[in-house]
Amino acid sequence: MTGLRIVPAGVAEAAVLSALYEAAFAETWAPDQLAQLLAGPGVFALIALDQAGEPAGYALGRVAADEAELLSIALLPDRHRRGEGRRLLDALVERCAAAGAETLFLEVATDNAAALALYRGAGFHEAGRRKGYYKVGTTMVDAIVMKRALAAD
Ligand SMILES: CC(C)(COP(=O)(O)OP(=O)(O)OC[C@H]1O[C@@H](n2cnc3c(N)ncnc32)[C@H](O)[C@@H]1OP(=O)(O)O)[C@@H](O)C(=O)NCCC(=O)NCCS
Description:
Blueprint: E1 5-9, H1 14-25, H2 31-38, E2 43-49, E3 55-64, E4 67-75, H3 84-98, E5 103-109, H4 113-121, E6 125-136, E7 139-149
The site of coenzyme A has 19 residues, from strand 4, helix 3 and helix 4.
């Protein structure tokens, strides 16, 4: 059992989210860009805090009427495979359902085996593909669009 605590986050946590993103993806997502996104309609963030209260991961989502989107999710690399990504995903699912969304969409790179397994295990299925959606170095990687229904309360 993990001592992870999942808390809501907002514009004030943009720098924390930026640091987590950079640690997870080895790419930059500038705090001001994140803050702008977080200030947009329907956008929300969840941060996972470890037992010491240190940020260990995040999930970003957006709800628009009856549709929601998982924008990004990541755990720090040294915390993978402890069930924490699934916990964050479940928390995001709950939040989207509570906001009235009926379907949750996401995009995932075809070569991201860990994320694909996480999403399939959480009930997502393939709904389409986007050719050359991600740029990894000089290589273009396709995205799989996945979706799942959200249970209404
Ligand atoms: C994807 C990610 C969030 C998963 O987080 P995690 O905490 O390691 O995942 P969990 O421990 O909750 O795993 C839940 C399930 O996902 C699957 N899974 C997770 N990592 C896996 C891996 N490396 N290989 C195969 N299956 C994996 C398994 O089915 C796992 O259940 P199990 O451990 O009972 O077999 C994490 O790998 C990560 O942060 N990756 C970098 C960022 C990223 O790629 N984000 C997604 C972008 S779309």
